[in-house]
TrEMBL record, chains A, B:
The gene is tkt. It comes from Aminobacter carboxidus. Homodimer. PANTHER family: TRANSKETOLASE, TRANSKETOLASE 1-RELATED. Pfam families: Transket_pyr, Transketolase_C_1, Transketolase_N. This is Transketolase.
Amino acid sequence: MNTKTVIPSVAKLAVSEVDMANAIRALAMDAVQKASSGHPGMPMGMADVATVLFNRFITLDPSQPEWPDRDRFVLSAGHGSMLQYALHFLLGYEDMPVEELQRFRQLGSRTAGHPEYGHARGIETTTGPLGQGIATAVGMALAERMLAARFGAELVDHYTYVIAGDGCLQEGISHEAIDLAGHLRLDRLIVFWDDNSISIDGPTSLSTSTDQAARFAAAGWHVQRIDGHDMEAVADAIEKARRAEQPSLIACRTTIGKGAPNLGGSEKTHGAPLGDVEIAATRKNIRWAHAPFQIPDEILRSWRAAADRGRAARVAWESKLATSPRRQEFESAVAGELPDAVFEDLDAFRKEHFEKATKVATRKASELALAVINAATELTVGGSADLTHSNLTITNGMERIAPSEFSGRYIHYGIREHGMAAAMNGIARHGGFIPYGGTFLCFADYARGAMRLSALMGQRVIYVMTHDSIGLGEDGPTHQPIEHLAMLRATPNLNVFRPADIIETAECWELALGEKKRPSVLVLSRQNLPMLRTIVPEGNRSARGAYLMRESVGRRDVTLIATGSEVEIARAAADLLHDQHKVRAALVSMPCWELFEEQDENYRAEVLGKAPRIAIEAAARHGWDRWIGESGVFVGMTGFGASAPAADLYRHFGISAEAIAEAALAIIQKD
Amino acid sequence: MNTKTVIPSVAKLAVSEVDMANAIRALAMDAVQKASSGHPGMPMGMADVATVLFNRFITLDPSQPEWPDRDRFVLSAGHGSMLQYALHFLLGYEDMPVEELQRFRQLGSRTAGHPEYGHARGIETTTGPLGQGIATAVGMALAERMLAARFGAELVDHYTYVIAGDGCLQEGISHEAIDLAGHLRLDRLIVFWDDNSISIDGPTSLSTSTDQAARFAAAGWHVQRIDGHDMEAVADAIEKARRAEQPSLIACRTTIGKGAPNLGGSEKTHGAPLGDVEIAATRKNIRWAHAPFQIPDEILRSWRAAADRGRAARVAWESKLATSPRRQEFESAVAGELPDAVFEDLDAFRKEHFEKATKVATRKASELALAVINAATELTVGGSADLTHSNLTITNGMERIAPSEFSGRYIHYGIREHGMAAAMNGIARHGGFIPYGGTFLCFADYARGAMRLSALMGQRVIYVMTHDSIGLGEDGPTHQPIEHLAMLRATPNLNVFRPADIIETAECWELALGEKKRPSVLVLSRQNLPMLRTIVPEGNRSARGAYLMRESVGRRDVTLIATGSEVEIARAAADLLHDQHKVRAALVSMPCWELFEEQDENYRAEVLGKAPRIAIEAAARHGWDRWIGESGVFVGMTGFGASAPAADLYRHFGISAEAIAEAALAIIQKD
């Protein structure tokens, strides 16, 4: 199935690849030593594999690190970051001069402890939390196939290469990732396993006996085992992997810290500098007579020659793009530019449902909004972790992605929340698509590791998280989120939207789509909610994060602040206070804390008001004191939920108009 | 290796096991129908397997559901809860009369949507979030072997049986669990996989192609494949599994909703009532002429006979215990009773290190405290997710648990945070041990799903989470917790301890050990911290959650509230304010929010004071407004961290005595 026919060959070299690999080893051990911190063992152990891969196979152009049809390289074993930085320097990435290697792990350097997307050009994704790299790479390899299905092999035809360690393969996320990749037959994905039998605590035999090759084979992968220090074996395996019709694992038997005569093969090389004595011994052992950070010209030239191969490929590709009739379309997709129609249609959608006063669950509202969005753009790619008809993430005409069949735009991620989130990171990082995916809000727990990376990398990944409170009812406390809103809101650079009705849901979708550098979570109800707006929706009121849904007339005795499904209840409380107690309550809907925090002081003061405040949310209080102040009251959950019909639960836990009204009466100063 | 020699045989039955299985089917479909909510498909599909298991093999006594040497049964596919409730009713558990089945999923019933530990007797663990059950069962099976190693097969000799679904096996946590179980050769663990080829979205072929049998075999399991509706095949497989020297997977090919003539085999039976028409058709199909919830006496008698087998086993075991010379020791272990020496020695430890003014990282302080604890009791079982020498969780003389070798008390969990947390839940639920386990605080993300269950079930599981802030330095933002304290503090029924020095660390360990019904997280620094106490430690000051570490003399101009490594910085700020600005600052150390919240109003008011307040914590602000009030200031993190030496990071992010002093000067009203 692989259409790429470039036959790799060893370039005519002034120096051997062994020298080229030793350059990596020297830079890694010297940089870690200078920083007094870092992980030399992995770069030294995988230097031979990396040299063959980068010298003979991988297609990258250091002068244009982001050209769309480049191969992707993911260092899943991110603690071995010096491997990547050394490669970038040797290949001639302009933003990776030797000075950056000398500032390894220092404040403001591009050479962070683990590869950080955005710090240095060519770092495709942030890694470090183990297993994230391989799972993100699955998303990249999937996006490559999907984009190729749309634009053809002329424009999209590249590999995704991963280096993973024992840790990556022990983590649960790796299971979700390799199962999904094997199922879909992502034949452009090639994973090198640094099989060095060492983890931090000591030999891996302390904690694992798994036959990884058999495990990958069980998941449908093409599997090879090689000596990771035999360069021809590495090359041969890569060639075979590129021809395989499945994703490939190349298990590379290596020696951690290879080259270090005394510590090589020991966990002592994993996460600490080798020390001056061992470094001197290593220099002797690998016959490296050069000073720290000095690379002889002829070795550097060999590496630069490898880069030239990539440059030529990039130039050839650009001329294909230049003459392609679909150039504009391709460039727009890769840039992630949404057509205006998306926003115009959402605007019309809001007006239509305002007129109809549509009463639906916000998950259903999301489905209706998605129908509009997905009709107006092809950029969106949906999916769910096996809750499609609960999350309501599929819309008419969305074909599913299936094994070796990538022309659709709906992904059955399986019961793999973490794998889904990481794959979405990979899809977003690859470019060409805007991924969204669904699960229950409670299972944000399972996806946490990858969701944090969405935020850290600032990727437009949209999480559709339904069944967002005790309002889901009978499934009970294991399925009812309590602390999850706090967990998500406390996460930097993540917008958490909890819309109250169909209008806000459409607004929040618009905001999520418009945030090119921030992930969003749409937190949606299982239960039906009435349309709450009282004036024709012009503009996007949710854009300010919180707004006065209903001002009190004349004076304000109390301010009720609520989100999502509790706004309806707060409104009923306001009515009750007015009708029965002549108390004037202002009602604030606060669909997005993060956007509200960004507003100016005046706007926030106007919305929050000076009257006592009550916050209502069917979740933990944690964080709400920010908005209600010391005299404020919180009406919500104080512990875990329970299994019962939703209405019974709201009554049981005292989240009701009556309880809110009672709380209001207790705190306000009557005139 | 299995010492149990009971040969199971089919009891003389008045009715066939088919009838017994159909009783489960009828109860499941009728209860779901009555509740208008629930999952009939799995109980109906697995009724045959469950009948053979419970009728012929499992050793339980419904009249004494908690006797220590019972077999453990874990319904990992927790949505099929009606299978368990039906079994409990049929076997005659007193707290599971038919009325409870009729109140399935209603408020206050014992029959929650998913099995909830503590709701009905005999529910060994809470399940529902997929994969948790199988991973918890690994901990139970491990605890069984460990307890058997201590007390011998006379007193400890039982199996752990699990029913798992496709969802459980797709989740990443299952990988961590089966790898660990296979590695340790937990031969008393037997997992039935309900291989029905259906998940919520439809056929499992939508999302997976994995050969599960091969996958388990790769992890070192004994694997069998059978027709899950062939009762003799089930029995034969169980017998073989019990004799195996590895953990066993029995892949049971089943039809979801078996018995339902039109919907059986379809995902439509998974998560919704069958409806009156299909229920009537099912009754006809399985020749079940009885009214809803009516079980003929002879069928009930057959089930009760199975329970009698368990009762006899329990009685026999009790007489062994009665004559055992180690009876008291055994009972005390199972009750989890710590000797007084633990607390006395910790008290002496605090006094000793107060005298020495020991300056160590709190992770090191934790290691020193653990040395005292582990010497004074054998109940504690330690471990780490491959960060033993970073978390400092092992103490002198702790032997490791190894494959088929269970006499030690230290577990190398591997790079499996989620699996570790779930295994600790299982160890705690099994009884006989107090598990603690370490990882970096940031990887609480990976363990979240199981940590939540520790809290929901109220288990004494102790998480040792080190490298708790930007203070870890060079590893950078992927490893630096920001939102994690908020995430953990927002979780109900979980004590989060962040001690400031060696004295508080010992106090927090004491509190964690003393909490029999609540898990604890010890949040510990990588970097060294001075001993901060100024008076001889009497009692446990951390027990009130927060306390005045230093009162200001005469008047209080400002209150500085800090936790962990920031208390030292706050103290320096207080000195600076005093010496340079004549500002009197009180210093509050707040190692545990949860315990402080439990104090009376007066105590809290005294600690917090009336002066303006500044909170200092190298983490997200989220939640701190609770303690600082509207006029308060927070000095901490506003986004993700960075990679650099720790001191540079504290300076860079403005968490310093100077910054705190400046903030204090800005908010206080000078006299």
